[in-house]
Write a structure and sequence with these properties.
The structure is a homodimer. Chain A is of the alpha/beta class. Chain A has nine helices and eight strands. The N and C termini of chain A lie far apart (44 Å).
Chain lengths: 258, 258
């Protein structure tokens, strides 16, 4: 499904987790990465080295030979960065799940969104092939370009508008960010009692595995779904010293039971 | 690592998810399953058929030829069931994460706990080999028997006392039950907006994958850890109609940020 479009040149604006993983994916797919921009030279250089690109810290120095400008900075920085970018015909996209596409409309005649629905760390490489890439653009030509681009790194391309993207991002916060925090809470509870988090790893893997072919609602197990008040009271007693955790335990259990 | 002890005979008391998966695991490991007990004949028969065993609905009819009685009923039924069981020397264990071992002390001279730290469904078979089996018993001989039994189905055997087991179970509620509920919430949000839950599956898989070699605390991503109040406010606005969900969103985000 992957088709390399190696003649196209890309500038990456940003050097965080998403910029790093997407830069690597495009570089591996055969694209030339011209520049990596970051406000600070160090992160720009670190990523630029990996992508055989030039680090820059000034948005006025963007290389206009690029066919695509990929804005992959923190959500609340996109607007500020966009205001400093002036290109003409070339396509500019951001990679955010929450920011409106139109934030880029003054940058270029062709703009859009290229949102990979995944969680990224700088160090852990991602298998992009299965990652849903949610694309949106202000015209058909740009949609077509983004489709080619997305196909070069993923087999799962979705045309998603800004409103749907926000919903997806909200759902992703529950499915990924909050889930990871549940792991963190579990790990902290075990640590307090000198038990290893490794004990929970097969359970965590199976919990994620089960929903691949099933509805999570039907997969629910545990005291709350059984309305086993005795066990839940015992758990609340164990959490007695931590009011915030007790409240989370109660609320989530109530939501499961209801 | 697995050693079959097929000469030993087992009676399974219970016919739910855990009883089903453990029964299958022991049967596959070469044990003879003499009987399956359930209060109702139908579940007893369904499981007994799979294990080539006899279904019973009366605890007075327990086959005393068994070397092991495995009590795998709901946590709040263990005490009631235990009161009806009288055996002599044979080993009796329950499979609960929360119930004290001593609930079985009037059943036999040899008693203990055989707690597989995993989430079980009737239909989905589990790879027991990696499942931590937490064992506890009232004497060394019984611990030794449970070790042999555990080794026949798993390579991950842990000697865990009742107090530690309760902590493990509490942590498992966060890591598994609450995590699965986060999947359910995400799925419901998408469904409300005609978006497919499939879109989140690669994200869920990666979130679980990431903690295999890393500390979940360090893996945290998303608006709460970035203290991105603008995105969190936008999410709360999207959840406006659902007070309970809004409260969960706020509390978990606060806990991540703090």
């Amino acid at each position: 499904m992957k088709t390399a479009v190696s003649s196209q040149k890309i500038v990456i604006i940003g050097a965080g987790n998403v910029a790093t993983q997407m830069g690597k994916a495009f570089y591996t797919a055969g694209y030339t990465i011209l520049q990596v921009y970051s406000r600070s030279l160090k992160p720009a250089t670190t990523l630029a080295k990996k992508l055989n690109a030039t680090p820059i810290t000034d948005l006025k120095k963007l290389d206009q030979n690029a066919a695509l400008f990929l804005v992959s900075v923190k959500d609340d920085a996109i607007s500020r960065v966009a205001k400093q970018i002036k290109i003409k015909e070339q396509l500019i996209v951001h990679t955010s799940g929450t920011v409106e596409m139109n934030v880029l409309k003054k940058c270029s005649r062709n703009f859009g969104v290229f949102y990979p629905l995944q969680t990224f760390s700088k160090e852990k490489n991602v298998d992009f092939d299965v990652v849903p890439v949610c694309i949106e653009a202000n015209n058909k030509k740009s949609i077509s370009s983004l489709q080619s681009l997305a196909k070069s790194i993923s087999s799962n391309i979705q045309q998603i508008d800004s409103k749907q993207r926000k919903i997806l991002h909200l759902a992703a916060v529950f499915a990924c960010n909050f889930t990871n925090h549940m792991y963190t809470i579990a790990s902290a509870i075990l640590l307090q009692h000198n038990l290893s988090f490794d004990l929970l790893k097969p359970l965590i893997a199976e919990t994620a595995e089960k929903i691949k072919n099933g509805d999570p609602y039907k997969m629910q197990t545990g005291p709350a779904i059984r309305k086993d008040q005795k066990t839940m009271n015992a758990h609340l007693k164990l959490l007695a010293k931590d009011k915030q955790l007790k409240t989370i335990y109660k609320l989530v259990s109530d939501h499961i039971s209801s």
